[in-house]
Amino acid sequence: MQNTEKDIVRAGEILCGGGLVAIPTETVYGLAANALDGSAVAKIFAAKGRPQDNPLIVHISELSQWKELVREIPPMAMALAQAYWPGPLTIILPKSGIIPDEVSAGLETVAVRFPSMRTTRRIIDAAGVPLAAPSANLSGSPSPTCARHTMEDMRGRIDAVLDGGECNFGVESTVVTLATEIPRLLRPGAVTPEELREVLGEIEIDDAVMGRLREGVKAASPGMKYKHYSPKAEITIVRGTLEEFIRYVSRAGESSQTFALCFDGEESEIPLECVTYGRSDDSLTQSHRLFTALRELDEKGAKKVYARCPSTEGVGMAVYNRLLRAAGFSVIDAKTIRIS
Ligand code: AMP
Ligand code: MG
């Protein structure tokens, strides 16, 4: 389907009738179902192969829809919404009684987002209900940022895909919980920690954001504990300058199936086949490109990939968080590694 009025109305009918439609948003494509219908939501988990204990984000198209989904909206939550909604920010609060257990995966809280993409909001309006929507990929693979990638993963598993073009940000929303004493960042996204601090003052950054969750520690955000965003190739992030990267891969690069995941314009200097993921000095271009680049590596048959390390400032934290998971936490420092 395209994003014509007729297709949007049709998507709304399918959703309202308990079906599944993959929809564009400004972050990534989402796999949507009526958030208030537990059996519709259960189909999302089946289509994605998503673990049952990983809760979903509920999408609304007007601020006024938020209050029936949560127990109450504290002033701090409203201030945050006023600053960054509509936009790529998900806010977690204690849930109200109308949220089915399938959405919250048994937790007492619910994650809500008010997307900024007009097509997304028109689809929610057409459905006439809030939509539960995780990323529209098969569980574990990179999130889809265009209709073609969505179709590759979801063909035959869902009722329709609505093509709204390429996603603007390309990584999933920032997730912050206000259900803890001190607000806590659970997943970095295009709304940065600095921007959250401007409204909330102090925030904590969950341990799972920049590293691997330790064995035995309960995940505040269940999604963070799963292997994620991973292409078939084995990725290693190489910290260091471009020169250090080149020196390292010149010695380590073995076969024709070894690739570099690098920044725009670096291809001619790197002695490997390259896939690029944005400008070295621009985290937003990196977030826009990253998941597409990971899928391109698979399409080209890459087995081993050395990735240039992004900056972790601002939106860079989200880029690094996704790349780190795609690499299964494999990071080396080109400065300290000696190859004889
Ligand atoms: P996705 O929609 O695929 O981007 O996944 C949603 C993310 O939000 C996952 O990492 C979930 O674990 C997280 N999430 C959703 N609801 C909650 C919640 N109530 N508490 C903590 N994390 C949540
Ligand atoms: Mg996801």
Describe this structure in words.
By secondary structure, the chain is α/β, with parallel strands linked by helices. The protein has two domains: 5-209, DHBP synthase, CATH 3.90.870.10; 234-333, Rossmann fold, CATH 3.40.50.11030. It is 31% helix and 17% strand. It has eleven helices and 15 strands. The strands form two sheets. It has a ten-stranded mixed sheet, with helices on both faces. A hairpin with a 6-residue loop joins strand 8 and strand 9. Helix 1 (5-16) crosses helix 5. It is globular. It starts with a helix and ends in a 7-residue tail after the last strand. Residues 134-135, 143 line the site of magnesium ion (MG).
Features:
alpha/beta; DHBP synthase; 2 domains; 10-stranded mixed sheet; 31% helix; globular; binds adenosine monophosphate
What is the secondary structure topology, with strand pairs?
Elements: H1 5-16, E1 21-23, E2 30-34, H2 38-48, E3 57-59, H3 75-84, E4 89-94, H4 101-104, E5 109-113, H5 118-127, E6 131-132, H6 147-154, E7 160-161, E8 174-177, E9 184-187, H7 193-200, E10 204-205, H8 207-210, E11 234-239, H9 242-252, E12 258-262, E13 273-276, H10 283-299, E14 304-308, H11 316-326, E15 331-333
Parallel strand pairs: 1-7, 3-5, 4-8, 9-10, 11-14, 11-15, 12-13, 12-14
Antiparallel strand pairs: 1-2, 2-6, 3-6, 4-5, 8-9
Helix pairs in contact: 1-5, 10-11
Bound molecules: adenosine monophosphate (AMP) and magnesium ion (MG).
The site of adenosine monophosphate has 20 residues, from strand 5 and strand 9.
